[in-house]
Amino acid sequence: MDKPMINLYEKFQLDCLDVISLTDDQLECLCLVLENFENFRGLELLLNLLPPTVPEKSLAKSVLLRVKAVLLFHQGRYEEFKEYIKLNKFKQKDHNLLQNLWNEANYAEASKQRTKPLDAVSRYRIRKKNIFPSSIWDAREILKQAYKIDAIPNIQTKQELAKQTELSVLQVSN
C-alpha cells in the first residue's frame, strides 16, 4: 500500500521540478542519484520532462546517454537498447557496465527462445555471436593501430596491449 504513494510522491516531486533551469551538474547529479537507487521510474519521468534539445547541448550528455541505455535495458526493451548502444558513443568509464548489460540483454533474448536455462557454453556462443559494438569497446581499434605499427609484436608489447585492452595475451596474439 505504501508503494503507490511513494510513486505518486516521486512523480509530484519531479513534476514540480523545473528541469529546464537545472544546471548540467545538477542534472547529472539527479540522474546519478536516481540510477544509484535504481529508481528507473524516476529516471523515466525525468528523461520525459527534459526538452528534446537538452541532451544535445548538455555537458551532462554522457550521463544522459548512459542513463537512457540503462533505462531501456531495465524496461526489457533489448532490441532498442542494443540499437541505442550502437548509435551512440559512450565514455570509457561506462564501457564495463554497458558491456555487461549488452551480454545480459543477449542472454535474455536467447533464453526467451529456449525451454531450458542457458549454460556456460550457450552463453559463450551468444557472446561470440554478439560482439560489443565499437561504441562500448575500443579494444579492436587499439589492436588495429598497434598491429599497423608492428605487425609481429614481441611478448612484452603483447602484454602491454593485453593490459590496455583488458584482454588476455592469448587473445591479443590471435
Q: How would you describe this structure in keywords?
A:
174 residues, mainly alpha, 0% strand, homeobox, DNA-binding, Homeobox protein SIX1 N-terminal SD domain-containing protein
Describe the structure.
With 174 residues, the chain is mainly α. The radius of gyration is 20 Å and the shape is flat. The longest helix is centred in the middle third of the chain and has 19 residues, at 95-113. It folds into three domains: 1-75, no CATH class; 77-137, no CATH class; 138-174, no CATH class. The protein contains eleven helices and no strands. It has helices at 2-16, 24-36, 40-49, 54-57, 61-74, 78-87, 95-113, 120-129, 139-149, 155-165, 169-173. The model is unreliable at 1-6 (pLDDT under 50). The relative contact order is 0.07.
What's this model, at a glance?
With 174 residues, the chain is an all-alpha fold. The protein has helices at residues 2-16, 24-36, 40-49, 54-57, 61-74, 78-87, 95-113, 120-129, 139-149, 155-165, 169-173.
- Average the pLDDT over all residues and give the rounded result: 85
What oligomeric arrangement do these chains adopt? single chain
The number of helical elements comes to: 11
Domain unit count? 3
Low-pLDDT stretches? 1-6
Coarse morphology: flat
> Helix fraction?
over 70%
The class by helix and strand makeup works out as mainly alpha
How many strands, what sense, and barrel or not for the largest sheet? none
In N-to-C order, the SSE pattern is HHHHHHHHHHH
Query: Could you tell me how far the N terminus lies from the C terminus, measured between alpha carbons in angstroms?
Result: 57 Å
Q: What Rg, in angstroms, do the CA atoms define?
A: 20 Å
Number of strands: 0
Percent of sequence in beta strands: under 5%
